[in-house]
Fold this sequence. Notes:
This protein has helices at residues 70-73, 86-103, 123-127, 139-147, 161-169, 187-197, 211-217, 233-242, 274-286, 291-317, 329-337, 372-375, 389-395, 397-401, and strands at 4-6, 10-11, 23-24, 30-32, 46-50, 53-55, 62-64, 66-67, 110-114, 131-135, 152-153, 172-178, 198-209, 229-230, 246-253, 259-265, 322-325, 348-349, 367-368, 380-383, 405-408, 414-415. The protein is an alpha/beta fold and 416 residues long. Residues 15, 17-18, 56, 58-59, 61 line the site of zinc ion.
Amino acid sequence: MASFQTMENEWVSDCPLCGVPPRPIMTLGHQPLAQDLLPPDSAAGCVRFELLPQVCLSCGLAQIAYRPPSTTVFGETYPYRSGVSRTMRDHLRSLADHCLELVAGKPDPFLLEIGCNDGTLSRHFARRGLRHLGIDPARRAIEQAAANGVSVLNAEFNARTGPSILVDHGKADVIVAANVIAHISNLRETLEQVHACLAADGSFVFEAISLFDLMRRGAFDLFYDEHIYTFSATAVDALAGLFGLELVDCIPIASQGGSLRYSLARPGARSCSPRVGEALRKERACGILDARAWDDFAVVATRSARALRQTVDRLRRAGCSVAGYGATAKSSVALTFAELGREQVDCIFDTTPEKVGLVSPCDRIPIRFPTPNLIEQYDYLILFAWNFLPEIEAREAGFRAKGGKWITYHGSVCIA
Ligand code: TMP
Ligand code: ZN
């Protein structure tokens, strides 16, 4: 059994937008860093922190109360790769097209991507010979971006690098960030730099998990250390106003179980889509600013995690074999919160080369590549990468054809 140590975290007491204390949603227990995958023989102890999502009932911004240092989370070995799934590659191509439409007709536009990871998005700019820059602190990921032909800067986007980008490249016609802004602790510094680097008629386009969809689905496992913030349109509307920008569009997109593609521009520079008002109304109606709605969320999340544990126990007692699918950050949250470990879940299948051969944080569940031979030995697979359901079902059609069943666990446990 791995040894535990508790980490010194940054403790956050106020909403960064309103300055008032947010309301705790629920505790998800003492969690490891969700992507702290280890070599099987590692002697490193498992670091834990209390995962305590909270929500500001004034502006609808959710954040986690204790934050591990960003250098710990997005270090050298950060294993996530944007390009690993077809779904994400296709999605990022559509985001690239959206950015290209925004710069269409502009002479020599400059596109800046914050958090370019392996370059899956920015390579579309590179291929067209457009001036662009991808910035990211994760060294190994950005080496892949450079190999994809992307111009890169291996650093965080902050008050040090923002001004030097401005000097080297000038103002950006588009600043784009896909599932990145939620990861950056210092929202103020980031937005100030976005404001400084954006051309007068430029657009800041960012995608983030939608708090509305998370709440509606009961997706408690979307709260984890990498997601410091979970945005709602309500929160982004407030954020834009605070930093001299205007929320001009928010387009619902399917990624990560429901996200929004926000467009911010300087006030008056672009006309405002009716989608903004619609999203604000929908969020208000579903209770995003209502303490009772979040109490209900906590009850449902706790009940579904308990049901998952009971289901797996029952299946194991009946002699069935159970493994997981998708060594995602979500898997770490769900396993820890449901108190499931190596005794219950034999292994986790995942196609990411950087993850295969490692073990999950804390309980050290082995991560294996899903060859048909291996996967078809299992009776049940818990689907932790539930956001890729259609792609995974298609890839692993043999598992179901051999009588295997998928287990999902949001709201209630489903076996199908
Ligand atoms: P994410 O939900 O954090 O984006 O991670 C999805 C994980 O699921 C990633 O580690 C790759 C894995 N995966 C598979 O193992 N097989 C698949 O067919 C797909 C689409 C993803
Ligand atoms: Zn607030």
